[in-house]
Amino acid sequence: MNNFVTIKTIVDENFQDYKKASMFIAFPKCDFKCFRELGLDASKCQNYEISKMKDIRVDVSEIFERYTSNPITSAVVLGGLEPFKSFDEVYSLISYFRTNGCDDDFVIYTGYYPDEIKEHINKLREFENIIVKFGRFIPDSVCKFDNLLGVNLASSNQYALNIKDVK
Ligand code: SF4
What we know:
The longest helix has 13 residues. By secondary structure, the protein is of the alpha/beta class. It is globular. The protein has a six-stranded mixed β-sheet, with no helix packed on it. The chain has a two-stranded antiparallel sheet with strand order 1-4. A two-stranded antiparallel sheet has the order 8-9. Helix content is 22%, strand content 26%. Iron/sulfur cluster binds next to helix 1.
């Protein structure tokens, strides 16, 4: 278990990634697969500027206190870069919230598809209220409204599922 997470930034109130007002946490690592696989430069990624920000280490208890003391938010969004590249810390963070009585929704934005991260998905199934947005970002793809998230996703191949519904 990690008592801390290494991240890029925290936004206390975010309204663009989920239907509920959310705390947004930006994780620090990605291999820029969405772009490299297409032969494109990593700098084309919309999160590229985030990758240049300084890493910060934050105690999970501090994030918990910050989240639970804000009456506006009722969910936590974990996003980009790529949270599954920091899986142990993601797991520890969610574990801490659950152990301390917070069952609020966690929404994880990943560029992976389920079969690429099977072990991690299986581990997260022990928790309630975990939603994962799957799929690569494809440049110039058409936006698609996702009913579960209640927001538009950037590429038509992307979709969100409750972790319990992932095959
Ligand atoms: S997973 Fe996210 S951060 Fe990584 S390349 Fe795709 S869009 Fe960029």
